[in-house]
């Protein structure tokens, strides 16, 4: 289980990218706030991707704020993983779980 | 090949670079806000092409040179500004800008709070206003006349007490908001404690801790449009519009009470604006009647917090004791 030690962010607001902020919260929960230029079509899919990515990293107490600019799945996933690693102050990811 | 754009970040101690930002802002008809702590600027070919500033939790003075507009460059600038804010642990942010830029900032995750006269607008990247409004609804009291007062009380005097007593006697219930911003001599916790202690004899009041939405650095900064005369008035209007359209309806507020202002022209103007905005029949929410209450005097001079501070400085405790309640006097003499 990885624990978030602080808030962190990754990404940009540029087109086809996403700006993702994560912060630790008290409760055992994954809270997602999503704004996306393609929310109507892909909103649910992005939320599911975000949730799954976080679960796969064994993180449990997190508030995620995703500002998506039409990023492809792997971009969102990479940005999110980077933000979480930074928040956990981990130098190296556990490659096998990514 | 396109020339490279480089971003840099610096703080307000770097006067040489701040000067350059000021010069750049001047070229796009904006004024540098003196309260900015951190600046972000972008350069291309050794020429500044964009800038932005961070003051507390407020992003302001965001500008892009005309030839770089319309290419989504604002998104790069905003990314840098958000990074600067996040690096300092500031996540709950406001933007102060002009309404014509609204859609740009909406693309960066900000929502409009209020705009005013097509000249200024305030946005936030959280849902805190909604949360605050909901928390206010829970404190709603029924009645025909629901009064309100916004006070800084720096510190609480017999003048404040008189204002509250008169307002409370004219209201079924009275809501008092205490300005939260710690820009005053006395700390917020001390100010609100003195208010509570000095008003414990009145029953039909609720004392609210202020918020970012009532006379704060977000709603009431000191900057923007060229003509200085405009500045205070626009900020006052923005603050009052938020009060009328967002906060007052949640508590069913029908009246706002203020003390008359014999000395300070800025406050006097604020009171005038208050009448114009809160009582405007064409507004989008119910009107709020503004009632000015004559300031109470002692020894033919109006009692004011500024006088208390002056007396305190001169250690004139005897005269001080005549214009503050016992509870405030005790506090002032204890901490000297």
List the SSEs and their pairings.
The complex is a heterodimer of chains A (98) and B (336).
Chain A: E1 8-11, E2 18-24, E3 29-36, H1 39-56, E4 61-68, H2 73-87
Parallel strand pairs in A: 3-4
Antiparallel strand pairs in A: 1-2, 2-4
Chain B: E1 5-11, H1 15-27, E2 38-44, E3 47-55, E4 58-64, H2 73-87, E5 94-97, H3 102-106, E6 111-116, E7 120-124, H4 128-137, E8 146-151, H5 158-170, E9 173-178, H6 188-198, E10 205-209, H7 228-251, E11 255-259, H8 265-278, E12 289-293, E13 297-298, E14 301-302, H9 305-313, H10 317-323, H11 326-334
Parallel strand pairs in B: 4-5, 8-9, 9-10, 11-12
Antiparallel strand pairs in B: 1-2, 2-3, 3-4, 5-7, 6-7, 13-14
Helix pairs in contact in B: 4-7, 7-8
- Overall pLDDT confidence of chain B: 90
CATH third-level topology of the largest domain in chain B: Rossmann fold
- Elements of chain B, N to C (H/E): EHEEEHEHEEHEHEHEHEHEEEHHH
The count of β-strands of chain B is 14
The secondary-structure class of chain B comes to alpha/beta
> What is the CATH-assigned architecture of the largest domain in chain B?
3-Layer(aba) Sandwich
Written account of the structure:
The complex is a heterodimer of chains A (about 100) and B (about 325). With about 100 residues, chain A is an alpha+beta fold. Chain A has one domain: 2-Layer Sandwich (Ribosomal Protein S5, domain 2). In chain A, about 35% of the residues lie in helices and about 30% in strands. Chain A has helices at about 40-55, 75-85; strands at about 10, 20-25, 30-35, 60-70. In chain A, strand 1 and strand 2 form a beta hairpin. The longest helix of chain A has 18 residues, at about 40-55. The mean pLDDT of chain A is about 95. With about 325 residues, chain B is α/β, with parallel strands linked by helices. Chain B has 2 domains: about 5-125, Aminopeptidase (3-Layer(aba) Sandwich), CATH 3.40.630.30; about 130-335, 3-Layer(aba) Sandwich (Rossmann fold), CATH 3.40.50. Chain B has helices spanning about 15-25, 75-85, 100-105, 130-135, 160-170, 190-200, 230-250, 265-280, 305-315, 315-325, 325-335; strands spanning about 5-10, 40-45, 45-55, 60-65, 95, 110-115, 120-125, 145-150, 175-180, 205-210, 255-260, 290-295, 295-300, 300. Residues about 225-230 of chain B have low confidence and may be disordered. At the A-B interface, strand 2 of A face helix 2 of B.
